[in-house]
Amino acid sequence: MPEKKKVIRISLLTFAVLAIAAIIVITVLAIENKEKSERRKNASEQNNVISDVGEAVDLMTFFKDCSMNVDDNIYKKYKNISEEIFDNIFEETLSSSSLGNLAVINSYFNLGKEEYIKDLFDKFYYEEYDGLKVHIGDDEVPEFYMYMFTLVSLKNSGIDLSEYNFDKKLADEFNKKIEKSGMNSDLNDIFWYFSYTDNINMIKYQKARDYFLKSYEIDEKKENPDYFSSVCTINYYRQLFDNDDSLKNKVNELYMSLNSDESFGFKGELGDLSAITQTLKESGIKEINKNKYLSDNADKWLEKVYNNAAEKSTDWLKEV
Tens digits of per-residue pLDDT, 32-75? Predict the structure, then answer.
């Protein structure tokens, strides 16, 4: 009988130890899950803030190119938040498009972060032979746009990426994809990238021409929410069709509809801001007075974008 009681006591003790161990494991897992959740939240906030600031700085860069000054107070706000961004980066959750925006921000404010951005590029990117894919942390991101925006942004920021030979790799991948599936919307971004490279002769002109004619019509009333994106896309195609009068006339007509003092249709969306900036850059429009609506509203737009970014950064950045 005493032996039986001893066995029961040992069993109870073992059960208690196991129960305590289980509680510890559950607690640790709960803490880890909470930390992961916080990291995901911070990652989302980080990438959203970098996107907002990057798009605004892109517009400021256009103004600078056109010898148009940005309000000093707005400039200081953006410079401060840009410095805070670089001081508080969560590298393991940085998105590819954020890396491109960091290059834009660094270049505009001369922050001297070229080598750091290059190190981030080395850390997050590698190429798989089964198609061109990007890996960021544990996530596979196959979108071409992320490659191209980042590569062009880094290149424009004076960061040498020639060792990667991405131009050739992207050209090869483009040709494989267009032969397999024809033109589709995600190839628009490939045209954009090729407009910055020497590989534009590799593009299949006839398929591109057919897709262009089929997909893009001028929206005189600007009621199509994708109107500005379409305008940007036409910029990329325009370089392909210099000897095609029908396409050239269509492009010119579209630009005449933009090149006026009328509203660009901006309703406060950051995507519109980015599209307007890119459209003006790529179209070669340098005279701000031809786009009075843009210049008259620049400070208001930049202030709004800054406030939006600052609000999102509450739990991530120090107060700036």
Answer: 555 555 555 556 788 888 888 988 888 888 778 777 778 899 99
| Most confident by average pLDDT, 22-26, 140-144, 301-305 | 301-305
Alpha carbons 301 and 56: distance in angstroms, whole number: 8
**Which residues are paired to 136 by β-bridges?**
139
Q: Using an 8 Å Cβ cutoff, are 50 and 102 in contact?
A: yes
- Residue 136 host element (H or E): strand 134-136
CB contact at 8 A, 234 and 191: no
Residue 154: what residue type?
L
Asked whether residue 82 carries a pLDDT value surpassing 50, the answer given is: yes
> Which token pair is 238?
């325009």
pLDDT at position 128, please?
38
What DSSP designation does 216 have? -
Using DSSP, state whether 131 is helix, strand or coil.
Answer: coil
Q: How far is it, in rounded angstroms, from Cα 79 to Cα 56?
A: 12
Q: Which residues contact 195 (CB under 8 A, 6 or more apart)?
A: 235, 236, 239, 282
Measured CA to CA, the distance from residue 302 to residue 298 in angstroms comes to 6
Given a contact cutoff of 8 angstroms between Cβ atoms, the answer to whether 280 and 48 are in contact is no
**236: enclosing H helix or E strand:** helix 227-238
User: What's the whole-number mean pLDDT along residues 96-117?
Assistant: 86
